[in-house]
Design a protein that fits this description.
2 helices; Imm6; mainly alpha
Length: 71
């Protein structure tokens, strides 16, 4: 897997984590309407995040991607 694909996995996990947290916060506050970026978020995004996270973890063990830069 190339450096770009690894970065895409990382950013995907970041977006999933923020989206899920934001979505749950709106649910906790019993908001009737959600902002457009999170209106389609559902529980399954948590599994998507975990899948990406474990793939990143595996790649770090195999290829030493730990010292990458996001810019």
């Amino acid at each position: 897997m190339g450096e770009k694909s690894f970065k895409e996995l990382v950013w995907g996990c970041i977006v999933d984590a923020i989206s899920f947290t934001n979505w749950r916060a709106y649910q906790f506050d019993n908001e009737e309407y959600l902002p457009a970026p999170i209106e389609n978020v559902e529980e399954s995004i948590l599994q998507q995040f975990l899948d990406g996270f474990y793939e990143i973890k595996l790649l770090n063990k195999k290829g030493g991607y730990f010292n990458w830069k996001l810019y």
